[in-house]
Every structure is written in C-alpha cells, then in structure tokens.
Amino acid sequence: MTTVLITSGPTRQYIDPIRYLTNASSGRMGAALAAAALAEGFDVLVVSGPVEVAYPRGATVHSVLTTEDMLAKALELLPLCDGVIGVAAACDYRPITVASHKLSKEEMLRAGEKEASFCLKLIETPDVMATLATHRRSERTQWLVGFALETNDHRAHALQKLQRKCCDLIVLNDSRAINSHETEVEIIADQGETVGTFSGTKRQVASGIMKLITQRLVNSEKPTLIEEESI
Amino acid sequence: MTTVLITSGPTRQYIDPIRYLTNASSGRMGAALAAAALAEGFDVLVVSGPVEVAYPRGATVHSVLTTEDMLAKALELLPLCDGVIGVAAACDYRPITVASHKLSKEEMLRAGEKEASFCLKLIETPDVMATLATHRRSERTQWLVGFALETNDHRAHALQKLQRKCCDLIVLNDSRAINSHETEVEIIADQGETVGTFSGTKRQVASGIMKLITQRLVNSEKPTLIEEESI
Q: Of A117, A122, A175, which has the smallest distance from its Cβ to B117's Cβ?
C-alpha cells in the first residue's frame, strides 16, 4: 500500500498569546489532494495547520499550530510514507521571543526605539520540505512534491525552491490560489521542464496532480508530458 | 428605531501580499451580539473582519480587511447609529510598509541587520473605538460599549481601555474567549463599578449583555446592578 503524507494549511507564529503572523491558506488544496490520493487507493496522512476546511474522512489528520510543530509531526510520520506532498503555507519567519502575556501598547512601545514604532525581531523557521528531504530513507524510495506560491518572477522562484527543497516535482501557483475555490498550476520537474499544467476547481486540479504523481513517482514509469486535459 | 453598529472579528495587517499579522478572533461573539440586538428589535449594522462565521440574516454586514478599513467603514456608518458595540479584535499594530510582492527569503534577510534575523518595523494603527468616541454627535445621544481581552492584570487593563476609548461600558473577558463557543465576562461602567457578570455560551452571554445595554443605555433607565442569572 502506498502511503502519502500531505502537509496542508497555514501555520501561526505567535508574538504573544493573542497576536500572530500567518497567511490566508485555507487548506482547501490539501483537502482536495487528500481526496484525490484516497481515490487513487493510497493511505493518506495529513499534517494540517489551523483551518476550517473538512478533510476527507479516510485521511488521518494531525493538527498543528506552528511551523516547528508541523516539521516535528511530519518527521515523526516520514518513516511510514512513500512520498510527501507539501502544500502547506508554513510561516517561514517567527518572532525571536513569544511573550507569555498579551503585550500592552505601553510594553510594545517600550520595546521600540521611537515612540510610535517598534522593531519586531523575526528569525527564519526551519524549512519543512528541505528538512524532510535530508531525513528521507533515500531519494529512490521516498519522493517529495513541493508547492511554490509566487507573486513575481514565478518560474525562477519556483526553480530555486525545487532545488533548495530537493523536490522531485514542484507545483507552481500564484496568490489567486489562496483561500480560493479555483486554481491554475504548472508542474515543474527537477531539470526545470514543465511536465503538466492544470486549471479548474481545486478538486479537478488535485486530481490531475495526483494522477501525474502516481504516473511519475509512485509507479515510476518513464516520465511523460501530461497536457492539460478537459478535467 | 434603535440602530446598533457592531464591529466584529479580527483584522489583518499585511507585510506583503501573502503574510500578515492577525489574531484568532472568530466573529462568534459579534454574530451572537447581532442576533441578540435583532431579538431586542434593533436595526443592526456589522463591520466585520474576515471570518467564517455566519452573521444573522437580519443584520447588514460590511466586510473589511484591515483596522484602517474597519475604522473608515465604522466612521461612515456612525451617523446612522444610536450606539456602537466594539467586539472586533482589530490589530493595533501594522508594518510600516507593505511590500507589493511576496518577499523572498533573500529580500527579507537583506532588510535585516544580521544574517539570520530581521527587524519588522511596526507602528500603531488608529484606535477604532477611541476615534469613534471623538466623532460621535454627543455622549448623551450615542453610546459606546467596548470589549477588553486581557491575559494579565485584567481589571486594571480593562479600566485603562474604558477611559482611553471613552466607553460607557467595557466588557472584560480573557483569552479563553477567543475562537471558543463559551465565554465569561464582567461588565464595568465608567466609574469602575461592575454592573453585570455573565457566563455560558456566547449566545447566552450576548443576550445578557444586550439586555444590560438596553436597560442602561438604550432606555436610559437608572443604572441598576444586574447579577448573573441562570441564562
């Protein structure tokens, strides 16, 4: 049985118990990919940040809050998996310190240099997919598919991510995909070649992506170019 | 006809088109207060940040994203209203600049002093309730009820907010109220006296708060102490 791990949704990086950094990822693409993977007959594990979306019943869902939590849970599940799809929009920066109580305006200003502004010191969080890449059994037995959400220089940024995250495929989409029901994606393989493009509802696009993953990575057939079908 | 304006939900303050600061306010208390106000026979206008909750059909809902949007819409509606209930958890800080494209890791680091961290400069957003207070026709004809969500020194912070925001009443709750179905509140009047305490589902608590507002502010009866009932 093929087991697929899907990271999904946003993460949160808290400043204090109330305020946090995040993004509008809804988990819809993750839920659609989970449904498509189940339809292919795969076992599906989901590690999800806080979302309102309902994941399909057949998937085992692990809820997390921060990027560090998401990475820890994904590392724990990695040995059970044949492949990972990283569609989560995990925060890549976090405040250096998290206050134990809600900071008052006076406390926030005290931390600042000027009266009206203050400096929130942020540091990088670990890169979930890049870390999973270094912990997999081998590239041959565990595949990785990443997502790149870009607002400019789309292809160049996606290729950088493909390499930094050591993914077999990267799915490129843009900010219109966030919290939307429809999306449009281009799938790029490790030599930079486009191996698929899909557009439509997230359900339709997820189905196309999963068929391509099944063909190229699960069944390890000879790579073929799948054109956008009328999905 | 009495018209009540309710600000509800969180706001978002963007760093770039993807990343933002926010909090986990669900809008549930705002929706419950809207339902309770409709049940009292009031006209209800809601200015809400992005939430999943459904407001009651009888309410006119205006959707906003940032604290500045929320204030602008509330100021526009203020002349139509007899009173304002500010239950929104509006972000009180925003990044000084909002990038037009998703910042890459390289760009974020370039803005920083050290290689691994960077300083996100934040400034205060306008205080929605305090600004509405200075724009009302008169204290006698337009009342204001604020909410204070505190994690420490609850009462002292709530009293500071009551005065800074020039509210007639302030509803004090704690962080357990966020994104929860139940809550527990203490209502404090302008001399610092407790005039009501309620606990239960947000619907029950909203009903108690609205009856107290009706009695003390809408009908302008002589202030009385309303004890917590078995609501």
A: A122
